[in-house]
Amino acid sequence: MASRKSSRRRSERVAIKLPVRWRRGQRIIEAITGDISGEGLFVGTQEQVPPGSLMHLEVDVPGEPPLAMFVTAMFVGQTTNGAGIGAEIFVMSEPERRRWRRFYLGLLRERLRAPTTSVSQDDLSKAERTAPPPNPRLIGAA
């Protein structure tokens, strides 16, 4: 049975390690993702921010230029996979959002083809249908 938290998720998490650069004031913090979804990512780091904080990230996607995004810290703390920040994508340009979705859906398709997968065809179809709508307050802000 799915936990209450996982049943609220709009899309399946996919475990993947991607380099991340977090622009925090005058510093650039190097980190790595633990997983991603269609709407967010987990950034493995010892750094902490209050939940609700806005973070400026660049995520390295294989074979493409880095993806720039602003995310909101939703969870900050220790997980079974280590310390980090669970973040929801807040704003990114429309071309960047399409690249993120294309990359994420490609990962889901790979998992679907894998012999031991937890992703179903229904999960993939749902993810393809449920791209997060643009935030109307931020159209043109990125």
Descriptive overview:
It is a single chain. The chain is 24% helix and 37% strand. It contains three helices and seven strands. Strand 2 and strand 3 form a beta hairpin. The termini are far apart. The model is unreliable at 136-142 (pLDDT under 50).
In brief, what are we looking at here?
The protein is α+β, with helices and mostly antiparallel strands. The chain has helices at residues 4-8, 94-113, 121-129; strands at residues 14-15, 19-24, 27-36, 40-44, 54-59, 67-79, 82-91. A hairpin with a 7-residue loop joins β5 and β6.
Question: How are the SSEs placed, and which strands pair?
Answer:
Blueprint: H1 4-8, E1 14-15, E2 19-24, E3 27-36, E4 40-44, E5 54-59, E6 67-79, E7 82-91, H2 94-113, H3 121-129
Antiparallel strand pairs: 1-3, 2-3, 2-5, 3-4, 4-7, 5-6, 6-7
Helix pairs in contact: 2-3
Question: If classified by CATH, what would the architecture be?
Answer: Beta Barrel
Report the order of strands and helices.
Answer: HEEEEEEEHH
CATH class: Mainly Beta
β-strand percent reads 35-45%
Total number of domains: 1
Radius of gyration: 15 Å
Largest sheet: 6 strands, antiparallel, barrel
Judged by helices, strands and strand pairing, the structural class is: alpha+beta
Q: Give the CA-based shape.
A: globular
Poorly predicted regions are 136-142
- Fraction of residues in helix: 10-25%
